[in-house]
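ok, trying the design again with the full structure, not the truncated one.
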């Protein structure tokens, strides 16, 4: 991946390379004029697409491109990007390109293409229907195409969607990658979506969706908004899923009144301004983020977002309880009237490297302080800070190497937190993902495993936490009822459900 700087402009169609990453565009010796640059346009990558490079010269650290319709002025300018669509870029096994009607391919071990069988994508949609129908698909593998069933009530049970959405950049085509359409309703269990190249594998489906026990892996290699779900309808339950190996801004960006519980989000690259579970302003109201793990990511782990402006609106009434983050960027919660409780945060990173100041103690001069847990409060050093932010947020019983503070004052209504010293020695074996506290340690009664004899839960599609019968039509209502009880326990300061 290459990285742009803030000097870049999505209005002018200009990208300026940062010069810190190698190999760089300038050092490549290539002229990228006429090739395709894949840029994370739009809001949080929702307009990610290939654009035509109109001006570049060998050795230059900048290029110009044709701005797609509707994308002028939209998009982050300090972000990763890369090039495709030219045979001059073919330099590694597994790559291929099209030139003058001929396919050029570099096979594994330089094997003879005449001795290999090739398959290629020939359809965008394997199933397309605009009628309102009820459709159940079970124990199927769909390869090289996706679904367009915007008015249908869909059940996916043990369905593997492999390479469902693919760009045509290798065929020298620019623009957005066609994606799976939304559904009127969706119940999805024990299924896999892998190698999806759209901005989000699933988006814009109806209310009360239920997704459980699924694996979302190797999606969004060309960046994009989410590696799993974006913009679901109200009341979605997203539980016991694994989101792994992705380049998107976020693992999941849930909709309003969602429950995101017992999920594993891990192995995200490259550096970008997102989070494993990224919640925009309106969906923060009523959301529950409960007992998830996030590890080995360059982005943030869990996030309630708002615009960095002193006049911006913020979100309220989100609940974040019992989550674990390890070797990720910080967790950041903007807004107010949230509950942030019983979370565990250790080994935070900053800019893809271990943060030097993971502890409030022993900070070296010149170290960049990256707090593990950041419940944003008014900070006079930031031009976009807002008086009263998180003044009414409850921050209790969290265990974190460090927490954002202003002049030693912790944010919100805070109690029972253990911060400012290394949490790792207080855990049984963090490297083996055993996050239970050592008996008698300072965190023995707080964090996501507050009772030493409590059942050890693990998240994700391969986790040991108890599942629901996803085939039952009332499953989503059972799940919503259970998590409503969790919300009530947390709201009334009762020990979280074990």
């Amino acid at each position: 991946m290459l990285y742009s700087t803030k000097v870049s402009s999505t209005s002018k169609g200009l990208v300026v390379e940062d010069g810190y990453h190698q190999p760089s565009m300038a050092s490549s010796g290539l002229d990228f004029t006429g090739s395709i640059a894949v840029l994370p346009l739009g809001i949080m990558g929702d307009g990610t697409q290939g654009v035509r490079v109109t001006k570049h010269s060998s050795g230059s650290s900048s290029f110009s491109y044709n701005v797609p319709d509707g994308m002028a002025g939209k998009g982050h300018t300090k972000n990763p990007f890369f090039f495709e669509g030219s045979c001059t870029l073919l330099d590694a096994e597994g790559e291929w390109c099209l030139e003058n009607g001929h396919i050029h391919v570099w096979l594994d071990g330089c094997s003879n293409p005449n001795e290999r069988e090739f398959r290629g994508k020939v359809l965008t949609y394997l199933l397309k229907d605009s009628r309102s129908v009820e459709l159940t698909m079970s124990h199927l593998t769909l390869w090289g195409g996706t679904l367009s069933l915007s008015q249908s009530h869909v059940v996916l049970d043990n369905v593997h969607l492999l390479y469902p959405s693919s760009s045509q950049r290798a065929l020298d085509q620019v623009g957005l990658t066609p994606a799976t359409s939304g559904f009127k309703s969706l119940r999805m269990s024990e299924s896999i979506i892998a190698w999806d190249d759209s901005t989000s594998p699933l988006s814009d489906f109806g209310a009360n969706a239920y997704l459980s026990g699924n694996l979302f892996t190797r999606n969004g290699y060309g960046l994009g908004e989410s590696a799993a779900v974006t913009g679901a309808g109200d009341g979605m339950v997203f539980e016991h899923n694994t989101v792994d190996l992705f380049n998107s801004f976020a693992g999941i960006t849930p909709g309003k009144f969602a429950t995101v519980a017992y999920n594993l989000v891990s192995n995200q690259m490259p550096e970008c301004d997102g989070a494993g579970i990224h919640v925009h302003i309106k969906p923060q109201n009523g959301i529950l983020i409960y007992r998830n793990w996030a590890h080995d990511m360059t982005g943030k782990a869990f996030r309630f977002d708002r615009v960095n402006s002193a006049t911006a609106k913020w979100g309220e009434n989100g609940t974040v309880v019992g989550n674990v983050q390890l070797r990720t960027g910080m967790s950041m919660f903007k807004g107010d009237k949230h509950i942030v409780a019983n979370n565990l945060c250790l080994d935070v990173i900053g800019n893809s490297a271990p943060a030097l100041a993971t502890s409030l103690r022993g900070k070296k001069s010149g170290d960049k302080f990256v707090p593990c847990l950041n419940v944003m409060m008014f900070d006079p050093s930031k031009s976009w800070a807002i008086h009263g932010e998180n003044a009414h947020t409850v921050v209790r019983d969290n265990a974190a190497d460090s927490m954002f503070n202003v002049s030693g004052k912790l944010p919100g209504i805070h109690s029972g937190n253990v911060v400012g010293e290394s949490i790792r020695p207080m855990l049984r074996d963090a490297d083996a993902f055993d996050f239970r506290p050592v008996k008698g340690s300072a965190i023995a009664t707080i964090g996501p495993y507050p009772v030493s004899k409590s059942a050890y839960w693990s998240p994700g599609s391969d986790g040991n936490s108890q599942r629901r019968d996803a085939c039952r039509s009332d499953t989503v209502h059972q799940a919503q009822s259970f998590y409503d009880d969790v919300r009530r326990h947390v709201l009334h300061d009762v020990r979280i459900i074990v």
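Keeping the full-length input from now on. Residues 170-183+198-488 form one domain.
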